[in-house]
């Protein structure tokens, strides 16, 4: 969970929504949470963001269906006119107002920093609550096995976001998560996106975007202790069937009841 230090977040106060969301993921889902505050004093924010993402992937990446990486950002966002498909996360509203008391400009290129995610093996979900969040929907990446890689953005391309508060995207995200978790079991990102839309009648601009070329399954979220399949939260809601046939060159000579037993074992 990534946001800007309080001295750079005085106008939005986006940090006030980070703790409630972290509490839902930690207490209700049992997920391990790391909260990172970007600043502009000792090192460039770009290096901080690069390091945060690279180290998180290195520590937690693993096979899809058994590992899920979630990245959440709240704060300012904008784009360079010459590079409209690159999202800049910022501690200030625009590039022009980036002069602060810090040593470095308080902004970082998310599109550059997220490159380690492109090559990860784990299922990956990115959640953006900032202006121009939809501009992170760059060209789709080649699929890698059965991995899912999705983006939930508070806005479409070239659009502003609602400021933190009762009408914000994160506020609806928290309420949607709580409601879906009360239903028990798991739910997909599609369920979550729909619930957010239903809670935000005033703003239907949020999007759920598949980052991969292939049409992959939606990521599934569930509390760790409720996983019916210990290997993965992302297998909970999937439906599938496997036909297994047992063959024997001497099936006619099987003892009575043995054929039925084999069929029964194959269906387990």
TrEMBL record:
Residues 232-245 have a biased composition (Polar residues). Residues 247-268 have a biased composition (Basic and acidic residues). Residues 232-268 are annotated as: Disordered. This is Uncharacterized protein.
